[in-house]
Amino acid sequence: LITIAVINVVLLNANVIQIPDVNTIISISPSLTYMALIAGFLAVLSWNIGNKTLGSNNAVLFIDVVPITAFAISAVQGSVPTNMQLIGAAITALALICNNIYLRLFKP
């Protein structure tokens, strides 16, 4: 939060960004409310409960699925993946599988 505030002050002073007017703030208030209450508070609370339920080993594996999910959603929306994106997704998936096998076979 401090970093965000400092960057905003620097950008404001450099006239790179402007303070939004009242109408803009009012028009985006539903989105801001969602981000603060649902995406912020409720998501973090759920994440903490999920980590407690899954355990740390599985929670680490679970968070690594997020980029694959984002990749899949963009593909469903019509974005054609490049060869490098496909290779990256395959490497990530393989790393998840190998890490999961390792944790299950060699960790108590």
Give me the secondary-structure category: mainly alpha
Mean pLDDT reading: 87
What Rg, in angstroms, do the CA atoms define?
20 Å
Counting DSSP E segments of at least 2 residues, the number of strands comes to 0
The coarse silhouette is extended
Element layout with pairings:
Elements: H1 2-13, H2 22-54, H3 56-63, H4 65-76, H5 83-106
Helix pairs in contact: 2-3, 4-5
Notes on the protein architecture:
- This protein is mainly α and 108 residues long.
- Helices cover 82% and strands 0% of the residues.
- The chain is built from 5 helices and no strands.
- The chain has helices at residues 2-13, 22-54, 56-63, 65-76, 83-106.
- α2 crosses α3 (56-63) and α4 packs antiparallel against α5.
- The longest helix has 33 residues, at 22-54.
- The radius of gyration is 20 Å and the shape is extended.
- The two termini are 38 Å apart.
